[in-house]
Amino acid sequence: MNNLTAIVLAGGQSSRMGQDKALITVQSVPLLQFVCNIAASCADTVYIVTPWPERYEHLVLTGCKFLPEAATQGPLIGFAQGLAEVKTEWVLLLACDLPKLRVEVLQEWAANLDSVPEEAIATLPHHAKGWEPLCGFYRRRCLPPLLEFINQGGRSFQQWLQHHSVQVLSLPTPEILFNCNTPEDLAVIQGEFDDLSPNPSPTRRGA
Ligand SMILES: Nc1nc2c(ncn2[C@@H]2O[C@H](COP(=O)(O)OP(=O)(O)OP(=O)(O)O)[C@@H](O)[C@H]2O)c(=O)[nH]1
Ligand SMILES: [Mg+2]
Prior knowledge:
Its cofactor is Mg(2+). GTP binds at residues 9-11, 21, 97. It is a single chain. The chain is of the alpha/beta class. It has one domain (4-205): Spore Coat Polysaccharide Biosynthesis Protein SpsA, Chain A (Alpha-Beta Complex), CATH 3.90.550. It is 30% helix and 20% strand. The protein has seven helices and eleven strands. It has helices at residues 31-42, 75-83, 103-111, 143-151, 157-162, 183-196, 202-205; strands spanning 4-9, 25-26, 29-30, 45-50, 64-68, 90-95, 122-124, 126-127, 130-131, 135-139, 166-168. A seven-stranded mixed beta sheet has the order 5-4-1-6-10-7-11, with helices on both faces. A two-stranded antiparallel sheet has the order 2-3. Strand 8 and strand 9 form a beta hairpin. Helix 1 packs parallel to helix 3 and helix 2 (75-83) packs antiparallel against helix 4. It starts with a strand and ends with a helix. The structure holds guanosine-5'-triphosphate and magnesium ion. Guanosine-5'-triphosphate binds next to strand 4 and helix 2.
């Protein structure tokens, strides 16, 4: 299809949510399944990096392959583990808690990877708090500097990216990065989808 692999990270503690975010359903679809299906529409190979693949075996994850981790050591280490398997020049990295991700936006970004300057190791959205490292593209050749950073004790994407050239990905709407971390975030997203439904719940509409 193209020269792209995707890595979906699904090994977080979900401590703010209080239950595994990967299995939370939005419009009846578990979040991990939603994100992986979008990833599979953009990339030939999709790896799911997680310490607990058995939790997700019942999901419909066509064309996706689990890469089991020994333990949760944070997203940067999970990414490095996935990246070690990648054979393509570019990899799309995604969190599993992005309920507003849009396939057409990722496909458009993927179609423009050829125009990213050679010196950039990644192309990512940027917002007020810095880079959005878990919804963007990295060059496979960033693995050696990433491993060096990790071996020196580094665990933060923001700190690692500070040392490198990164190209900004333009966002058609910041909404697609909506991160579902807490029960309040979940209530917001479920409320929005309820409002779009042809038969909105009478309790939400109120009198
Ligand atoms: N494979 C893997 N993924 C991780 C790890 N830590 C976080 N992630 C993933 O990284 C993404 C972003 O995680 P966060 O939203 O920051 O948080 P979280 O750890 O899942 O949840 P909190 O405990 O509430 O911070 C999610 O897709 C997580 O599943 C890890 O150790 N391994
Ligand atoms: Mg998150």
